[in-house]
Amino acid sequence: MSADIVNLRQARKHQKRAAKEKQAEENRRLFGRSKAEKTATQFEATRLRKAVEGAEREPTSHKHEDQE
Asked: For the whole model, what pTM was predicted?
């Protein structure tokens, strides 16, 4: 039985490429959203913020003088 001959330089390059691909896959999972998805998320956050601000009993800009 003879062992396969391995070129160490090529093996290191292959290993490095595999590590980069793994990192790229992780980045795609974490940051890979389309512009439409980002815009929709931003729109939803703005809508919710306005709904909460509109439901306040007293606007935050009109604080009572006695409470300061």
From this structure: 0.45
